[in-house]
# Entry
Amino acid sequence: MSEFKTNEIRQNMDKRHVDLSYYEILRDGLPADLTVVKLGHGVSWTAAVLSDGSTGVAMHTLGDAVPRMFDSLIGLPLTEAGKAILSWNMEEASEAFAAVNAFYNRPDSIFADPEAKTLDGIDMRGRTVGMIGMMIGHSNMTQEGFAQAKDLFIMDREEKQGALPDSACEFYLPLCDVVIITGSAAINKTMPRLLALSKDAEIILAGPSVSCCPELLRIGINRLHGRVITQPEAMLAAIVEKRMSINTYSAPFLVDAG
# Structure
């Protein structure tokens, strides 16, 4: 099987009218003077360290059958490694998003807020809510937070109690007033379709894979809630040992359209 090149992905998706704005905004904002110097792989998370010492994470998404764009992201300029957020090799895409997040998700960001919660100020009364990825119990979300919603439809790629299969998004997202999407949808390339299905809803992206990039609000996203790494060395050591929450080693950020 021949390698998948970035321009081939771009051309093939153009033919299918796929909106790649989410990925293009992230790539266009990357600086030319940083390189990827280290990667960390765990059960739940993939981490990347850049030449300025900044560290980022993304969900470790399984899938290594498709050839990689690059033999390794280590040593590549971030602008080059960032191209792999469009890789169909999910292991490589996880690495690329971790590297991109190392740039965007910095502890000194003006959007970092230790008190920020995903649903702060969101009025759920009488509204139909869709959730992509079972996030009840994560990102400060509880079942009680949706008590006043008219309906709550949870969809997940994995079989989980209380969740519909993710294919149900085609049926339910167009009916929703509020849609909460896990940031890992960008890694597995379902993000463009999910955003299109949710175009009439208030859209919130949540989870450690979300990039702290305010320019993403230009494409119809209303809120970004994710994590900035505050204890990089401890986090890098911990992710390889066990399945774990990243929250111990990070702090929230919140970017809101207002």
Q: What stands out?
A: Residues 138 and 177 are 21 Å apart (CA to CA). The chain has seven helices and ten strands. The longest helix spans residues 90-104.
